[in-house]
Write a structure and sequence with these properties.
This protein is mostly helical. Among the domains are: 47 residues; 48 residues, Arc Repressor Mutant, subunit A, CATH 1.10.10. It has seven helices and no strands. The longest helix is centred in the N-terminal third of the chain and has 14 residues. 8% of the residues are buried.
């Protein structure tokens, strides 16, 4: 017997249809593996909006709470284009002077993020670091760190190896 595949919308439709036939909410939620809160949410959406309410909804937020207003973002970009050698700190200070209490001034990091988003910031060159060189001493060190003379090296090695 082949496996039967169903979509989320079909499952929700079956859930609502059985509720409309008179089956209990708790029993149905247990059978479908959802919480009662989710069951009531699906059922109430169906009663208010019909079949369209059973489709998946977008999870994208309707608005972004801390998004910078568009005029301020454009002002930051314009200042940078006028003075290309200025950085985020100077541009923020200019915003403080120009807007002076009218609007909440963005942080320096926000101004930098806007400039970066518009491609107005040059990345610093990455420093190239050489590989570490390991030097080997001709004589192995003792526990104290001082090199051993060749005459006593065999006894010192034995002392290092044995605890």
């Amino acid at each position: 017997m082949p496996w039967r595949e169903t979509s989320v919308m079909e499952e929700r439709l079956r859930f609502v249809a059985r509720l409309l036939d008179g089956e209990g909410m708790s029993h149905m939620c247990r059978e479908f593996g959802i919480s009662r809160k989710t069951g009531y949410k699906i059922y109430n959406r169906y009663k208010e909006q019909g079949l369209e309410a059973l489709c998946d909804r977008s999870r994208r937020p309707a608005r972004y709470a801390n998004q910078l207003p568009e005029p301020i973002e454009q002002m930051i970009v314009r200042f940078k284009q006028e003075k290309p050698h200025w950085g985020a700190r100077k541009i923020r200070e200019l915003l403080v002077r120009r807007l002076s209490g009218d609007v909440r001034i963005p942080a320096k990091s926000t101004v930098h993020a806007v400039l970066d988003r518009h491609g107005l910031v040059k990345r610093a060159k990455q420093r190239r670091r050489g590989k570490a060189l390991l030097f080997r001493s001709p004589c192995p060190p003792t526990r104290s760190g001082a090199p051993i003379s060749k005459a006593s090296s065999s006894s010192a090695i034995a002392a290092i190896v044995t605890p």
